[in-house]
Design brief:
Two copies of one chain form a homodimer. The first copy, chain A, is mostly helical. Helix content of chain A is about 65%, strand content about 0%. Chain A contains 21 helices and two strands. A two-stranded antiparallel sheet of chain A has the order 1-2. In chain A, strand 1 and strand 2 form a beta hairpin. In chain A, helix 1 runs antiparallel to helix 6 and helix 8 packs across helix 9. Chain A is globular. The N and C termini of chain A lie close together (about 10 Å). At the A-B interface, helix 3, helix 15, helix 16, helix 17 and helix 18 of A face helix 3, helix 15, helix 16, helix 17 and helix 18 of B. The structure holds potassium ion (2 copies). One potassium ion binds next to loops of chain A.
Chain lengths: ~475, ~475
């Protein structure tokens, strides 16, 4: 373990992160919305903490190893999540409690998009911007970590991902990957955000709303500047734009990168994860729209728009709302909630278990049935033309098992905190899948959840965002042994 | 496929099965309880159907292959389940609808123990006896199939089971296994039933109740002759006797067989599945009792008795009730419901996914975490001293995946039938795990579930009892190809 180097990295990250508070501070100063003090104070504290960490851990900087990678990734969201809570705690409006402020901050950074705030429309403009900006920052963090770092750590079968995609970088050291790849990913992310902003603006959003919602769209975050979320704009065109960008942001940025470098758009359709991801969403959309229309719940046009938008919003784990989705016949919201367990592609800003893992598991299930009929046949497991190693398959299965057990344990804990079954189940699913809104008591927001409950859900959001194993592995004694 | 042989086997099974209706018919005649006509008619119809099938498919009888094994196992419960419904449908009391009668019959035979009947205490004595007898018969069927047939079919990693236990029979043909092993298993089963009957009787049950409840106890069935289930007797001693026999019946009958043959009782403690099974139940019992007592919900003595009894009853998937369990703080019933997914040991009369599979998955999860820290280490996966083949592990994982997907799909279907989330979730879990009682709307009985819902739950009970794959594999077109 190279703890000094890790401290230095975290210090640097904190200094960069403090800039996210400088921008809202400027907004607060311009619009005199009353949050200037909170942001200035939070900015100072974060920057100085970062500077101290960075300055105190000078010296020779060795290359980082695998274990250091786990620690950096785990600390990235926990430390930033805590410091990011400062403005929510310090500002008079919303003036959250400690647990609520950390919940809002972690929910933002992990791009979960669950909120504890009621009366979002009345928040100071700087706080509104800050919430969206947290998601945007979390989004790029996720992509860089997922594309550049996780494959090296080999979490839950993500070697698979590295093996299949002729990805950006292939060597095994952390440092060159992060610097080299991160720039390209960042560039694409910014370009996508700009395109999304322009589209929203052209469709009728105010410029401020367009920027804010493009932040939370490309990050598959789901925060909005309005209590009514996307429903506020009452515009099918905006819902469609949002749908398109959610779908794009839910694809692997490694593929985007590859298409961008080679110019070959057909790479999307050659990638089996992308095909699976789009196939599942298309099937779900057809079922949901079909039910809404043929049951007479909605008019055909409304059914198509609402069905498409909500299916994509929940399945990609964005979690934007428009229609009163929680009031649909209950098996639709619950069914979509289950879809969020699949989530986006690996290397996207989406949450969930990731399409590639679910695809692998589905293929393995079918393979096993065939094997039962032909016990002596040798049936290889393939993704595209690439044969999947047994080691990778077992890593993916373990990921599933641990994900499921974590999910169930947290659901029970939330019930012990006083939530009913549907609320506990959906709150946990929405948190661990980094999706956002739940059902039942937590359909609109999480303000009624107890302090303990909020901390548990924070843990769930981090667990999901850190691909479970990152957070679990550092809890093992063996991890800390020399 | 040897369809004539299969028809002959099913015909023979039906003729044997018709005897389960002859005994209640005799009871009905003696006690003049009004169900004589129903049982006579049902007996005649079942026996003649069996005889016709048997007689029509004469001729050369070749050895059966793997695929025939799947069909026989799948037909065993479906055909017997349908014919077994006749008395429930024909008798004036309970006079069930077709769907309700089939539900009650399938629930009995699969040893699920979910009921659609209200007013059980008022049923004719012959019907009461018949319900319990169905469970007892289902129980021995399960054991013979699980110990003698499933390992050959290699369903969901059950080769594992064969590999570890120096089990009764090891060759690969069906016929000698069934005849040879079945006798020994049957003998042990009868002995256990007698012991249980005597214990109940000595503890104060009427002789009739003692027989009836010993039937449903050794079968881990959960049917009772009283609406209040075990609570009717209001006797801690009876609850303890029931607990002990549920625990024994939840262990593998292959181990029982082995202990019986060798006389070495310490074999139980050398078997890793048995240790895991008892360890999980002990941990859960301590947690439940601890919570009930320290939260002040119950007095210490009540807390210990009720906590122990209900934990064992749900964890082994027996499903007997005593206290008003569904009214406990909701995370306890839901937590125990999740335990029923583990269920009994492979080769027991218990349901669920079976302890050995869950143990394997838990070990694999821990192994994977260790592998993350030491990426290049070779860490073998062992059960006891036996190293588990990768093929077996992947079969177990697939079993889990398919089990989970089936569970979720059926839960959604039950919600579409009008059940709320908790009721749908618990009804599906209780059915697929062959456990019995649910929570919410289906806590007491399943009478309010729609016809479609009852059929779906019948399917779930069969799916669970047939280890999922048996029922799924015969739906594959490849299964029917030459
Ligand atoms: K989200
Ligand atoms: K049962």
């Amino acid at each position: 373990m190279h703890l000094t180097t890790i401290c230095r990295i975290i210090g640097m990250l904190l200094m960069i992160f403090s800039l996210t508070m400088a921008l809202p501070a400027a907004l607060a100063a311009i619009y005199q919305d009353g949050a200037l003090g909170a942001f200035s104070y939070a900015f100072g504290l974060t920057f100085l903490s970062g500077l101290s960490l960075w300055a105190l851990s000078r010296g020779k900087q060795p290359d980082l190893g695998i274990r250091d990678g786990f620690l950096v990734v785990a600390l990235f969201w926990t430390v930033l999540g805590l410091f990011g809570a400062l403005p929510f705690y310090l500002a008079d409006n919303p003036g959250l409690s400690v647990s609520a402020a950390v919940f809002e901050s972690v929910s933002g950074l992990t791009t979960t998009g669950a909120t504890v705030i009621t009366g979002i429309d009345d928040l100071p403009i700087s706080i509104l911007f800050y919430r969206q900006f947290l998601q945007w920052l979390g989004g790029i963090g996720i992509i860089v970590i997922a594309v550049a770092i996780l494959p090296i750590l080999g979490i839950g079968g993500m070697q698979l991902y590295r093996a299949e995609t002729p990805g950006p970088v292939k060597d095994n050291k952390l440092t060159p990957r992060i610097t080299g790849t991160a720039k390209a990913l960042f560039f694409m992310y910014v370009a996508m955000t700009l395109a999304c902003t322009l589209a929203y603006w052209a469709a009728g959003m105010s410029f401020f709303d367009a920027i804010c919602h493009s932040f939370s769209t490309v990050a598959i975050g789901g925060f909005s500047t309005h209590d009514a979320s996307m429903g506020y704009f009452d515009s099918p065109l905006i819902l469609l734009i949002c749908t398109v960008f959610m779908l794009i942001a839910g694809m692997s940025f490694a593929i985007h990168y590859h298409v961008w470098r080679s110019g070959r758009v057909r790479l999307y359709m050659q990638d089996s994860e992308t095909k699976f991801y789009l196939g599942v969403i298309a099937t779900a959309t057809l079922s949901v729209c079909g039910y809404l229309i043929f049951s007479g719940e909605q008019t055909p046009l409304d059914g198509i728009i609402n069905g498409l938008f909500h299916t994509v919003s929940i399945a990609t784990t964005a979690g934007f709302g428009a229609d009163d989705f929680a009031a649909w016949p209950s098996f639709l919201p619950v069914g979509l909630l289950l879809l969020s367990f699949i989530g986006g592609c690996a290397g996207s800003t989406g949450g969930g278990m990731k399409a590639v893992r679910v695809m692998l598991v589905a293929k393995q299930g079918i393979r096993e049935l065939k094997q039962l009929i032909h016990p002596s046949a040798v049936i290889p497991l393939k993704i595209g033309s690439h044969r999947v190693e047994a080691k990778v398959v077992s890593a993916v299965w373990s990921f599933f098992g641990v994900y499921l057990i974590s999910f169930l344990a947290i659901t029970l804990a939330m019930m012990a905190c006083g939530l009913d079954f549907l609320s506990a189940f959906s709150a946990t699913a929405a948190s661990i899948n980094n999706m956002g809104p739940g059902l039942g008591e937590v359909a609109a927001n999480y303000s009624t959840v107890s302090h303990t409950g909020k901390w548990i859900l924070c843990y769930a959001m981090l667990l999901g965002r850190l691909e479970i194993f990152t957070l679990l592995v550092i809890l093992l004694p063996a991890f800390w042994r020399r």
